[in-house]
Amino acid sequence: MRDSQLFGHVTAVAPGKVNLSLRAGPLRPDGYHDVATLYCAVSLYEEVTASPREDDAITVTVSERSVFTGVDLLDESTGERVTGEIPLGASNLAYRAAALLRDRLKGRRAGVLSGPWEGSAPAGWGVDLTLVKNVPVAGGMGGGSADAAAALVACSALWDAGLSKEQLAEIGSELGADVPFALMGGAAAGQGVGDELSPLLHRGELHLVIAPASVGLSTPGVYRTLDAMRERAGVQADTPELDPDLVRAVSRSDAESLSALMVNDLQAPAVSRLPELDELMDLGLSEGAMQGIVSGSGPTVFFLAHDAAHASQLATSLEERAEVWAIPVTAPAPGARLLAQK
Prior knowledge:
Strand content: 25-35%
Structural class: alpha+beta
Distance between the termini: 17 Å
């Protein structure tokens, strides 16, 4: 066991998210879609521990404490399930976050490095990252982005960078639209490709039940299916907009109003790939859920409950009847934060 595993480590957490609404516009020339979405962080957290190294290497391991250590993926060409693994190299978002932050700190760019880091540097720029994964993998809940957000917070503290959460969010935006939101948490309207965030003031809390699927879906693949479905139906997508009533309902944690306003343009293509999602949503509604939809590109399904007791009861019913794992959570949840520093 390395000394870095015994002392000098920093642990941070960051939340997964659901999309309480997601509207997708037409395919753009750059291959992306404009979206109008309402992000909501949930009390299901990824945990990242950053331990110093004496060299410049970055390593990523997945802790045995993880709830999710991998996922089967649906092969787009054959429709068959293939075993997928969490990447541990340079393609891992936590790895990329640490590398990007390190490059920024080494370069001392943009004059943001005043404070405790100025004039000093860590003994080594390497870091061992240990992930505890509690958010479904490839489930439309931003687990990888939460890893990146937690890695930014942990490495910033480890390297004594003195960066604010807003500065980390600016760096994290280069890694994907969900990373800044995982840093900030709460609830926010997302536009553009989801990266133009407008935080919402909110009061109260919502109670949800998360039901992970047994297989993951590719986000680009789900969008391609959406485009194909629209083309076959002769549907021309409009510029997406968020319903103002939805924004008000989330700001007030008004579950009754929210239940009638939740919508996801990616739900139909996700269900076309995994028809059992439709059965799960129907079951949840029959068991008393106020509403149930696919989160993001799926295939995780979440249900809206009246209160904490109802969420617990609904989770138990779903596990008994559908033999799925159902997790009661609250929302909106806080964003990334330090958990421990030793």
